[in-house]
Design goal:
The chain is an all-alpha fold and 100 residues long. It has a domain of 36 residues. The chain is 82% helix and 0% strand. It is built from three helices and no strands.
Length: 100
């Protein structure tokens, strides 16, 4: 009697674990249009946050590119000024050498 009830419990446990997997249907895919028109405030907030983040990243990327260009221009201007100062100094040294 005990063995029969143990076998029955084992069979029920196996039936419970296999039955839902066989009957389970794949989750329906939600389109982007359905997400955009949802009335759930949490979903709307998440979408708005995502849009704001994407906009911020785009602005940041543009600003960083502009900064790199400005930095490169400033660096080349500084090098040109150094080159001119060196030439002026060398010319002054050549015309008026330091007395020994």
């Amino acid at each position: 009697m005990l063995a029969a009830s143990a076998l029955l419990c084992i069979n029920l446990a196996q039936a419970q674990t296999t039955a839902p997997a066989e009957d389970a249907a794949p989750a329906p895919a939600v389109s982007a249009d359905a997400q955009a028109t949802t009335t759930d405030p949490l979903v709307q907030k998440r979408q708005a946050d995502s849009d704001a983040k994407a906009e911020y990243k785009a602005k940041k990327k543009t600003a960083k590119a502009n900064m790199k260009v400005e930095k490169a221009e400033a660096k080349s201007d500084m090098k040109e000024q150094k080159r001119e100062a060196t030439e002026a100094r060398d010319k002054a040294m050549a015309t008026d050498p330091i007395p020994k």
